[in-house]
Amino acid sequence: MSTSRTSLTLVQGDITEQSVDAVVNAANSSLMGGGGVDGAIHRRGGPEILDECRDLRASRYGRGLPTGAAVATTAGRLPARWVIHTVGPRFSREEDRSELLASCYRESLKVADALGARTVAFPAVSAGIYGWPMEDAARIAVETVRGTETSVEEVRFVLFDDRAYEAFAAQLG
């Protein structure tokens, strides 16, 4: 395993349209869908994703998926094989939660490796309704992915708008 063989690419667009092995969902801890990326993945992926999320809640995650953790389900009708759900932290000015955000990327890559995924699409975890400042979210995402040993060959950051794309592009240098 080597991070030097992992290419990092940027795409501006819709993460639900990415033909990759695994799409990372910026999920809420309930795993039952929600707004933003989470809602889009559940809507486009169809009921199969929700069915597997319900099974996870009934078995391993009765209290919900912990912040910073990751777990995989089918991708349903998405053009991917799997969805890796991760729960990002809410931004706080009073408490440094950077390690929890970094954990989302590390744990998602660990799940991807266990699945045998070679291509993974990430959104800007926690940079939407969870309020993480985009520039800092991009820094943590890129530094963490670069510093994590993985067999994943391509990490694709799929960014919804110009501002997010520019923040990630600045981190990739």
TrEMBL record:
<dbReference type="Pfam" id="PF01661">
    <property type="entry name" value="Macro"/>
</dbReference>
<feature type="domain" description="Macro">
    <location>
        <begin position="1"/>
        <end position="173"/>
    </location>
</feature>
<protein>
    <submittedName>
        <fullName>Macro domain-containing protein</fullName>
    </submittedName>
</protein>
<dbReference type="InterPro" id="IPR002589">
    <property type="entry name" value="Macro_dom"/>
</dbReference>
<dbReference type="InterPro" id="IPR043472">
    <property type="entry name" value="Macro_dom-like"/>
</dbReference>
